[in-house]
Amino acid sequence: MPDPTLPGPKGPVEPIGPKPIVPKPIGPVGPIRPPFAPAAPFTPGDQSTPDVAAILQAAKDIKAKLENDREKLLGRSGHSDNPDNPDNPDEPHGSPIRSKSFVPFLLVRAYPGDCGARPVTQAAMGGWNSGSPDIIVVPASLSPIGTIFGREEARDFMAQQPSDYAPMRNQPIDVWVHVWNLGQAAAYGVRIRARESHLWDGPSPEWEEFIGGAQLDLGDRTSPRSHALIKVATWTMPPEAPPLLTIRVVAECLTDTASTTFDAVADRHCAWRAIDSTA
Fold first, then answer.
1. Is 146 left (phi over 0), alpha (psi -120 to 50) or beta?
2. SS3 readout for 78-101
3. pLDDT digits (tens, 9 = 90+) for 104-155
4. DSSP strand pairing (106-107 vs 172-181)
5. Is residue 239 in some structural domain?
6. Does the residue 122 lie in any domain?
7. How does pLDDT run across 225-274, given as a tens digit for each residue?
8. Any residues with CB less than 8 A from the CB of 110 and at least 6 apart, and which?
9. Which residues form the domain of 128?
10. What CATH number should be reported for the domain holding residue 219?
């Protein structure tokens, strides 16, 4: 009971001791701070040190897996171990044969029936000594414009050309080239270049004149666009031209390059054709 003698209000006195806990109402929960995460690689906040050895090893593992998968895809088992011709660029010693690899295999034929085997021998040519059947010289006025794909179109084009045509001096002629891709992969950006030489005893780059070139894409050997006839040059024979000229062509692309010697006997990318000129 309160003491009536003391001044002040005579209300009840709070009891001594801990106050009772009154629960507070729960409101909406605020945003939760995410745990710390390192910066993404190669970003401004990236402070990590790359493991060079691990990166190089991972690259080697990926390369080995891709090569293994390619071998399985191609089903390739042939290898060249021919000691008689170890320097053949198409079949180097102990390496996969190019014709069985997933790469282009360009060819300008040296003789009818040529399938790209090099070096060319007289026995294989069977007496054919007029040069490549894939280099065609026709009067400029009879040549269509464009590139011819397919056997039927090529046959029709050849049937329209004179078989005994001999170019005349000061008369423009068109030089056409029939180029083939016998490889398992398409050939993109194939460049065909034609040169004229006055030397019959073997064309030589020092005595040749560039007369024209062209570029095209060829499909793989199973494609209907695996070979094509294309006009590479329109050229006028000079008045001082000798009676016998040689035209040489080279066909190559970045994934199937020609040799540096441009030897038609040893390189399937190169071919020549002798032409007789008239006055």
1. left
2. CECCCCCCCCCCCCCCCCECHHHC
3. 999 999 888 888 888 887 777 766 667 888 998 888 866 666 678 777 887 8
4. antiparallel
5. yes
6. yes
7. 999 999 999 888 877 777 778 889 999 999 899 987 778 888 999 998 88
8. 120, 125, 131, 132, 264, 265, 268, 271
9. 102-276
10. 2.60.40.10
